[in-house]
From TrEMBL, chains A, B:
This is Transcriptional regulator. Keywords: DNA-binding. InterPro entries: HTH_ArsR_DNA-bd_dom, WH-like_DNA-bd_sf, WH_DNA-bd_sf. It comes from Cryobacterium flavum. Residues 37-117 form the HTH arsR-type domain. SMART domains: HTH_ARSR. GO terms for molecular function: DNA binding; DNA-binding transcription factor activity. It comes from the Bacteria.
Amino acid sequence: MAAAAQYVTTENSALDAPENLPDPLPEPLIGELQLEDVMGALADPLRLTIVRKLMLESDSYDHTCGWFGFDRPKSSLTHHFKALRQAGLIRQRQYGLERRSRVRTEDLNDRFPGLLDLVASWHEA
Amino acid sequence: MAAAAQYVTTENSALDAPENLPDPLPEPLIGELQLEDVMGALADPLRLTIVRKLMLESDSYDHTCGWFGFDRPKSSLTHHFKALRQAGLIRQRQYGLERRSRVRTEDLNDRFPGLLDLVASWHEA
DNA sequence: TGCTATGTTCGAGATTACTCGTACAGACCA
DNA sequence: TGGTCTGTACGAGTAATCTCGAACATAGCA
């Protein structure tokens, strides 16, 4: 994988939602998204599953790490969620104890149109 | 990256071309293409460049390893071309001394529609 | 205060990938 | 026969990644 983009904390507390959400964790800006990083992040079956499940089964809102029901140690999950966030695939916000994730659908469709469709049509092995 | 698919030598000497081409080197069949392998292969800038250049500048036919003009040792190039072939992104045929490559456009568009468009619209860093 | 639940950070070990030099193989040609 | 040119195979060193255990941090609650 290529070098990750530098992080910038985006401030949009009152812009993208009526309710004031917690600020997102550090993530690359839209213009900093790198195709090679995104590809590298999706080169792992577990991470592919995370993004796909978030896209298709996330009824209304962000989901916690435990919502996925993976039988893996917590530190492993932290690792993969962090990889997805640093590549720009998901946005994470801290809600008290829980850290909830959502797919950066708008940004990704804007920058890499068709990419999320590939993930959605992926059938797990 | 996930485990690579098993190889099968496809025999299509008289099917896909009027002229009889040399048989392709071992490569995964269409049904064996794995999204995570493809993503992993495209997670490298040099390999992204290879596929993109083959797509956009390959006027009529397959191209050799040296056509790209990379300033890298030969063994490194072999490594990356092999990675692309094993992931199913390119097809390689042996023409005497030269090993020529082309993108598996039809297969990829059939299996992962939109993927090659992402590669084509990639701007190199 | 103490317990529980969520998730992080750190570090180690194992595995995989990348890079490259060297040696080798085969086709072509003088 | 010998030289050149294309590209492979193998191995070593380096770097990155994956996986996981252990210890830690914090919010909520009784």
